[in-house]
Amino acid sequence: MINARAETVQEKSSFHNAFKSRRCVVAMDAFYEWSGPKSDRIPHEISRVDGRFLAMAGPQEVWKAKDGSETVTFYTIVILEPNAFMVNIQDRMLVILEHENYDCWLSGILEEAATLMHPAPEDILQERLVNKALNNGRNEGNWLLNADAISTAQHRR
Question: Of 3.90.190.20, 3.40.50.280, 3.40.50.10490, 3.90.1680.10, which CATH number belongs to 3-155?
Answer without folding.
Answer: 3.90.1680.10
